[in-house]
Amino acid sequence: MDLSDLHIFRTVATECSVTRASQTLARVPSNVTTRVQRLEQDLGVPLFSRDGKRMTLTREGLAFLPYASRILDLVAEARQVVNPTEPSGLFRVGTMESTAASRLPDLLARFHALWPSVSLQLTLGATRDLTQGVLAHRLDCALIARPMKGLGDEEAGFDPDQLQTEHVFVENLLIVLPPDHPEILSPADLRVDTLAALEPGCTYRRIAEKWARGGKPVRTLELNSYHAVLASVATGNSIGVMPQSVLDLMQRPDGTKTYQLGPVDTLLVRRKDSRSPIFNAFLDVLTKRHSRGSVAERDS
Questions:
Q1: The HTH lysR-type domain covers which part of the protein (predicted)?
Q2: Which of 157, 205, 242, 294 can pair with 197 through a Cys bridge, CB separation 3.0 to 4.6 Å?
Q3: Which domains does the chain carry?
């Protein structure tokens, strides 16, 4: 089984497109198609369903992807051990929208300046979806939210036996109150019965929903961005939930108030069986240990 074929297969699976995969791999599309077909012939099963230009993994492809990723990661780790080199190649990072907006812009620019040979692919999503992506080898690592004890649902959707976590940030989670809403001391003081939040897999949403249930019943209005959440709050018909760092970036409507739900950890998670020089470099930048020497030290 050719390692290059496995790399091409994983890239097509990630991009869901031969055209996009060929751009990432710097190969012509016909070569990518031929190599995928050769791997399918070798395995004796179709790995992709072809729907026009979209490539979707078959049941066999979904089953094969984790093994292909483990083989490629192990080879990269073995090469690094015997011949340490600077980080290079594709690195797939998942992140919450809030973290991407408030924490990552400067850090990603610093990472690219330090390691220009790394092609970083960013995927936005909720904590639960990002964690599943790491477990399924669709992502190399992910930045997720996990509430501290006593703040809400502790379940971040990850298996501690398979995932390693690194603490990187702390967010101050807020309830944003509409204009002219009185200050509150508890959910019992709320005068609206709707919570504006992101998708169900969002940890911040779970914390806010559990908190709000301490007062009168509330329904959740699911929106696709924090700008939409704040706009809903501005109408006066809902409360919203978001980190302080995100609210600080936005144009806050006059009269809005906030109530602090408390601190929430942001964790960088990866599979325990998958660690690479790129991950070490990325973690170093996130935690401000971003000298070139630090990566080699962490690998030693």
A1: 1-58
A2: 205
A3: 1-83 (1.10.10.10), 169-265 (3.40.190.10)
